[in-house]
Design brief:
alpha/beta, Rossmann fold, binds adenosine-5'-triphosphate
Length: 196
C-alpha cells in the first residue's frame, strides 16, 4: 500500500488542503492519506482549540472520502500535548505500517523551514517527499535544496492560493468564507461560532 502523511494545524482546513489531497490520491496514486493534526512548534496564536481543529480535519476527511475512501485523521500529535515533529510522526507511522511505502505531502512554506525540522536528514530514510508549490511563497522550493540518498523529493506546481490565515481574517471581519472551505467545515465553523 502507498501511504501519504499530510500534517498541519488545519486552523481551519480549507479547499487548498482538499485539492492537495485529491491531487495526491488521483495523480500520485496514494491509497491512504493520514491527515495528522499537529501542535506546530513554529505556529502560535492559533484561532481554534485542538478539539475543534481535529473535528474540522475529520470534516475535511469525510468530504474527501465522499469521492472514494482514502483518508483518516490522526490525533496522535495532539495527544502528545507537546511540540510535535514530523520525524516522530513518520517513525510512528512506520511502526503502524512497516511494510508500506510512505510519502510526505507538504506545502512549499513548510518545506522552506525543512532544515529547522528535528532530525530532518532522517526523513529521507523514512519517506519520499512531495512539495506543493504555493504561488504566494517567495523564491522557489528547489528539489535540490536537500539531497537524498534514500527517498526522493518532487516539487509540484500547485498554485492554489488559499490559506487558513486568510480564512481566519475574513471570518473575523464578518466576511463569507463559504467558497474557501469544504461545506462540512463551513457548517462546523458556523455551528460553533469559530473565528468571529
Ligand atoms: P496558516 O495560514 O495558518 O499558516 P495553512 O493554510 O498553511 O495555514 P496548514 O494547516 O498550516 O494551513 O497547512 C498544512 C499543510 O498544507 C502545510 O504543509 C501547508 O504548507 C500546506 N498547504 C496549505 N495550504 C496550501 C495551499 N494552498 N497550497 C499548497 N499547500 C498548502
Amino acid at each position: 500500500m502507498h501511504l501519504a502523511v499530510f500534517g498541519g494545524t488545519f486552523d481551519p482546513p480549507h479547499n487548498g488542503h482538499l485539492a492537495l489531497c485529491l491531487y495526491a490520491r488521483e495523480l500520485l496514486e496514494i491509497d491512504r492519506i493520514i491527515i495528522s493534526v499537529s501542535n506546530n512548534p513554529f505556529k502560535h496564536n492559533r484561532g481554534a482549540a485542538d478539539e475543534h481543529r481535529k473535528r474540522m480535519a475529520e470534516c475535511l476527511s469525510s468530504e474527501i472520502n465522499l469521492t472514494g475512501s482514502c483518508c483518516q485523521v490522526s490525533g496522535w500529535e495532539l495527544e502528545k500535548r507537546q511540540p510535535s515533529y514530523t520525524v516522530d510522526l513518520l517513525n510512528y507511522v512506520h511502526q503502524l505500517y512497516p511494510h508500506d511505502s510512505v510519502t510526505l505531502l507538504v506545502g512549499e512554506d513548510s518545506y522552506r523551514e525543512f532544515n529547522m525540522w528535528k532530525e530532518y536528514e532522517k526523513l529521507f530514510s523514512l519517506c519520499d517527499i512531495v512539495v506543493f508549490r504555493r504561488s504566494s511563497a517567495e523564491g522557489s522550493a528547489s528539489p535540490s535544496a536537500a539531497s537524498s540518498e534514500n527517498g526522493s523529493i518532487a516539487v509540484i506546481d500547485f498554485g492554489y492560493e488559499v490559506s487558513s490565515t486568510e480564512i481566519r481574517e475574513l471570518a473575523a471581519a464578518g466576511q463569507s468564507i463559504s467558497r474557501l472551505v469544504p461545506p462540512a467545515v463551513h457548517r462546523y465553523i458556523i455551528e460553533h461560532g469559530l473565528y468571529r
